[in-house]
Amino acid sequence: MAEVAAQPYPYRFEPRSTALLVIDMQRDFVEPGGFGEALGNDVGRLSAIVPTVRALLDWARRHAITVLHTREGHRPDLADCPPAKQRRGDPALRIGAKGPMGRILVDGEPGNDIVPALAPLAGEPVIVKPGKGAFWATPLDEMLRWRGVTHLILAGVTTEVCVQTTMREANDRGYDCLLIEDATESYFPEFKRATLDMVRAQGAIVGWTAPFATLRASL
């Protein structure tokens, strides 16, 4: 049993029943010239965590921890995109519209790819999710349970949207979750700070948080 000096108190896990879930490290969100930047966001905040996420992936692979990735994306015909979601935002930059890196949030388009530095290895599942959370309308829960996973280590973007939603979904399904503080980021620093405070409040009501260095020291 490994122990991490996390907040609000130590997080304990067995590597063989733990999975690392890397959420939505997609070119459109992270790279200059993509959808995120087209919305007026500073993508430099997100791209800055790529080296830490890569180090986290290397650490998990080295310790034979299950690794899974997610991408937020939709079918080309948008049949899996809820109409309320598609209607959001500037009509010129809505889901399915032509963006700087291809059609926005459409599976198979260049912008929907995971950034090359974090590319999944052969055998690492990639969950394509139509919503913010990685459990809704995906086989993620079944895939984790087939593998005997009870604990999740989370990384990715954005902290307050897809990462937090997934963490809350996982918590409701009985998984113990650890969010790596320097392997997640938001376009809005105050949103990240608030999310970290929320998930670990009231005795880890949603989960635990810790920097990568602290996790790395646990094994």
Write a concise keyword list for the protein shown above.
219 residues, alpha/beta, six-stranded parallel beta sheet, two-stranded antiparallel ribbon, 9 helices, 21% strand, globular
What does this structure look like?
The radius of gyration is 17 Å and the shape is globular. A hairpin with a 2-residue loop joins strand 5 and strand 6 (about 100-105). The protein has about 220 residues and is of the alpha/beta class. Helix 7 (about 160-170) runs parallel beside helix 8 (about 190-205). The chain is about 30% helix and about 20% strand. The mean pLDDT is about 95. The protein is built from nine helices and ten strands. It has a six-stranded parallel beta sheet, with helices on both faces. A two-stranded antiparallel ribbon has the order 1-2. It has helices spanning about 25-30, 35-40, 45, 50-60, 85, 140-145, 160-170, 190-205, 210-215; strands spanning about 1-5, 10-15, 20-25, 65-70, 100, 100-105, 125-130, 150-155, 175-185, 210.
Strand order of the largest sheet: 7-4-3-8-9-10
Strand content: 15-25%
Name the helicity range: 25-40%
Q: Give the SSE string.
A: EEEHHHHEHEEEHEHEHEH
Q: End-to-end distance, in Å?
A: 9 Å
Class by helix and strand content? alpha/beta
Main sheet record = 6 strands, parallel
Number of helices: 9
Mean pLDDT comes to: 97
Low-pLDDT regions: none
Shape: globular
The radius of gyration is 17 Å
Count of DSSP strands: 10
